[in-house]
Design brief:
- With about 160 residues, the chain is mainly α.
- It has one domain.
- Helix content is about 75%, strand content about 0%.
- The protein contains eight helices and no strands.
- α1 packs antiparallel against α2 and α4 runs antiparallel to α6.
- The N and C termini lie far apart (about 50 Å).
Length: about 160
């Protein structure tokens, strides 16, 4: 009496595409955006380098915001991507949790976990390859959920000319 057909291959393909594309696109957008402060610092003084804490803070903000903005844009272009896009946070989050648990079990000292959230030196690769892209995936999933809300739909469809009237 009640039947629902789900095209699993299309859903898996959409999820896989988003799972790969969002971290890469977020990386590209963040890299381009980080060129601005680096250029400003380079023009002010030749020996001035951005502090690791400031760089980590800016990178975190840029990955979160790029993921969220990509979700809003992709939702508008490909509305069918929303159901699978809401779930791309799961795999990278599980990976980061596993990496943190592995390092903590191996070393046993919580100080080793700083490299995940305050990247500095040679250990920074773990944050830039795992943690920051995970932020983008979480923000993308939140953006996909928010893009389906009535408030965001109303905001996106409201044109600047209709606000003036």
């Amino acid at each position: 009496m009640f039947t629902t057909e789900v095209n699993d291959s299309r859903s898996l393909a959409a999820w896989s595409t988003q799972q790969v594309a969002i971290p890469i696109l977020s990386w590209i957008l963040t890299y381009i955006a980080m060129l601005v402060p680096e250029t400003i610092l380079a023009r002010r003084a030749t020996n001035l380098v951005m502090d690791a804490g400031i760089e980590a803070f800016l990178t975190t903000i840029l990955f979160w915001s790029s993921g969220f903005i990509l979700a809003i844009l992709i939702r508008q272009i490909f509305p069918s991507a929303a159901p699978t896009g809401k779930w791309i946070w799961v795999l990278p989050t599980l990976l980061v949790v596993y990496l943190i648990a592995w390092d903590f079990a191996k070393v046993g000292n919580p100080i080793v976990l700083i490299e995940y959230f305050y990247p500095k030196g040679e250990q920074a690769w773990i944050a830039y390859l795992a943690v920051f892209p995970t932020y983008a995936c979480i923000a993308y999933s939140l953006g996909m959920s928010a893009a389906s809300s009535k408030i965001v739909k109303r905001f996106i469809r409201t044109s600047p000319t209709s606000l003036q009237a």
